[in-house]
Design brief:
This protein is an alpha+beta fold. The protein has 2 domains: 3-55 and 93-153, CBS-domain (Roll); 62-91, no CATH class. It has helices spanning 20-30, 50-55, 62-75, 79-91, 112-122, 141-153, and strands at 34-38, 44-49, 126-131, 134-140. The strands form 2 sheets. A two-stranded antiparallel sheet has the order 1-2. Strand 1 (34-38) and strand 2 (44-49) form a beta hairpin.
């Protein structure tokens, strides 16, 4: 089994100049966890994920943010407005400021086993699929699992 058998070919992408708000909207509307970032020439220059956006700009840990948010909700302090302002300011930044630039990719002929191994080793959920420099698909952990299940049940 190779990546070509399980990848999604109609890949949604985002520009490095798009705002994090625009990328967030795309992720939410498409119900996906990440997008390849493609420049004007169609070359993959990065990848942006939900966690990249959520953690952007925070010098504190996610746990600290949740603790503060919980405290605001419990005490009903007006500090919630400050948190919203901070979030809005973060979302005005361009995707290029937050994206992962060291993108791990595969080809359509890469085995699913190798793709799965790359995802586990690098703790990532998706791999852009390139034919030379051209983006031809994307494969996710879910895609790999579905294909493995399909192959197992076909026996």
């Amino acid at each position: 089994m190779v990546v070509r058998d399980a990848m999604t070919q109609a890949v949604q992408t985002v520009s490095p100049q798009a705002t994090l708000l625009e990328a967030s909207r795309m992720l939410a509307e498409l119900d996906i966890g990440g997008l390849p970032v493609v420049d004007d020439s169609g070359r993959v220059v990065g990848i942006i994920s939900e966690s990249d956006i959520i953690h952007h700009g925070s010098k504190r840990t996610s746990l600290d943010n949740w603790i503060e948010l919980e405290s605001i909700i419990r005490t009903r302090q007006p500090k919630a407005r400050d948190l919203s302002q901070e979030i809005n300011e973060r979302l005005d930044n361009p995707v290029a400021d937050v994206m992962t630039v060291r993108v791990i990719t595969v080809t359509p002929d890469t085995t699913l086993q190798k793709a799965a191994r790359l995802m586990v080793e690098h703790r990532i959920n998706r791999l852009p699929v390139l034919d030379g420099q051209r983006l031809v698909g994307i494969i996710t952990r879910g895609d790999v699992l579905k294909e493995m299940y399909r192959a197992q049940t076909a026996r």
